[in-house]
Amino acid sequence: MTNAHVYAVIDSLNPALRCAMYITTSVTSCRRLLSHLKTQSSRLSPPCHFKSKQHFPRYRAFSNNMSDVDALTKLAHKLASEGPHKYEKTPRRVRGLLNGKYIFDTTSAYLVWEHSYFPHFYIPVASLSPTTTLTKTSPIQNANDTIHLGTLSTSSSSSSDPSNTRTPTVLILNIPTLPVPLLKIPPPALDQWFEEDSPLYTSHPKDPYKRITILPSSRSVKISLRSTVLASTSHPFFLHETSLPVRSYLPPTSVNWEYLRKSDTTTYCPYKGQAEYYHVQIGDEVWKDVVWYYRFPASESVEIKDLVCFYDEKVDVEVEGVEEGK
């Protein structure tokens, strides 16, 4: 069983078993546990063979509508005038799947910081597979013919729909501030991205210069809003994430749940996993999505599983009786 199969089977498990997989940090241990579960239960689905976009419903959301194209065009103008914030070559193997075919498979990808917050994968034009066609559709104005909008396509005998074999708009960059001609492919334009054998389920890879440290504490934390206490505990976990504010994660039993209302919002962080949200309602006033938690956190953040975090900038936070600055 390959690593890709391991992750595919993990993703097919029911929530309780999937949580156990997330907590298991060793792929070897995952394999052993999966082998045991496979002999004990018929609930496991067969290993995914990554043949088509149906296996990856989170992707292919990017389109050629004006807002998406406008966003790429705006980025192109920024890169043409200012260049990227920074970039570096990555030794990771990066692959992109389109309609059952890898249109690139490279260890020469670049991490490009379009801004200071996090990087994106940019793929060398030279890394495209021989069966992949890169088509320039239009040049970016005022970029001296160094940046074009374009599409990627690949032939497929299993699909009669041309849209399945062609990406939406991509950026083709041959600018002096980047070392080689590169492609900016919006992550949802492909069926799936892989870092080594791990599926990439977020809009960007992890920043190699960021880390998360989660520390239990006996310092008291109180969360309030408009003088109403929303939560209070002497057993918080403090999450330290490079260049971001410290976040306090609190036991669910420390929360006054009468003020929380379930939200439909979800977000995904490559370091922590998928977050679910609550609104806060006091009287007739509602503050949207100011509380979040992770039911199935990423392995590096398992300590915050099911703990509750408040958006510090929108509530009042006291640590050891001292109000934190907003």
Automatic annotation (TrEMBL):
Write out the transmembrane intervals.
Answer: none
Q: Which domain of life is it from?
A: Eukaryota
Domain spans labelled DUF427: 95-135, 221-313
Gene3D superfamilies for this protein: Domain of unknown function (DUF427) (2.170.150.40)
Q: Which Pfam families match?
A: NTP_transf_9
Which InterPro entries would you find in this protein's record?
DUF427, DUF427_sf
Q: Which PANTHER family match?
A: BLR5716 PROTEIN (PTHR34310:SF9), DUF427 DOMAIN PROTEIN (AFU_ORTHOLOGUE AFUA_3G02220) (PTHR34310)
What protein am I looking at? DUF427 domain-containing protein
Whose protein is this, by species? Periconia digitata
Q: What is the lineage of its organism?
A: Eukaryota, Fungi, Dikarya, Ascomycota, Pezizomycotina
